[in-house]
Amino acid sequence: MSIPHRLGRLARGFVYNLQEDERFGEKLRVGRERGEAIKNAFEAALRGAAEEWRSTGEEARRRTYRSGRASTTTFRPRRYPPEVVAAYERLGLRVGAPMEEVSRKRRELIKRFHPDRFPDADKRARAERLASEINASYDVISRYLSRRR
Predict the structure, then answer these.
(1) How many CB atoms lie within 10 A of CB 91?
(2) What are phi and psi of 73, to 5 degrees?
(3) Please, what is the Cα angle at 20 between 14 and 24, to 5 degrees?
(4) Three-class secondary structure assignment of the chain
(5) Angle, vertex CA 81, rays to CA 79 and CA 84, nearest 5
(6) Cβ neighbours of residue 4 under 8 Å, at least 6 residues apart?
(7) How far apart, in whole angstroms, are the C-alpha atoms of residue 51 and residue 54?
(8) Residues 6+ apart with CB under 8 A from 135
(9) pLDDT by residue (tens digit) across 52-102?
(10) Under 8 Å CB-to-CB from 145, ≥6 apart: which residues?
């Protein structure tokens, strides 16, 4: 018989013997009741918070509808042109990443897909195409960020 098997049998016997003890049974029952009480309290708090979030959202929509424009407290994310979004996606970055991160990612990708690393003609042509796409994406992002300043 393996050691884990023996330990399992020993633990089952220990728990079985404890369950016959009235004090241990009482502790188990109290623990279960306390766990249920905590669970119910968390569920009630979650329902209350969800209701509060819902009512706050509805109130903000009413304010926006009445004034005809978005309220100043509402967060509106920056809108990027589609070509900039596509460039970020081509580099594998989240939209709005800082220029340092864009430069780091460009260097990493160019090292990986530099045409001089591939002796095979087909792979070399593919690497040239990827390198040009990487550089074009970098140019689009850098031009957009420099214009925005």
Answers:
(1) 20
(2) -85, -15
(3) 80
(4) CCHHHHHHHHHHHHHHHHHHCHHHHHHHHHHHHHHHHHHHHHHHHHHHHHHHHHHHHHHHHHHHHHHCCCCCCCCCCCCCCHHHHHHHHHHCCCCCCCHHHHHHHHHHHHHHCCHHHCCCHHHHHHHHHHHHHHHHHHHHHHHHHHHHC
(5) 110
(6) none
(7) 5
(8) 106, 110
(9) 888 888 877 777 666 555 555 566 677 889 999 999 999 999 998 999 999
(10) 99
Instruction: Report the C-alpha gap between 80 and 141 in whole angstroms.
Output: 10
Q: Kindly state the tokens that stand for 20.
A: 């016959």
Q: Which residue has the tokens 């009630």?
A: 44
Query: pLDDT per residue over 60-70, tens digit each?
Result: 777 766 655 55
Residue type for 52, please? E
Q: What sign results for the dihedral spanned by CA atoms 16, 20, 21, 23?
A: positive
The CA distance from 92 to 137, in Å, is: 11
Token duo for residue 100 = 């340092």
What one-letter code names the amino acid at 16?
Y
Amino acid of residue 26: E
pTM of the model: 0.49
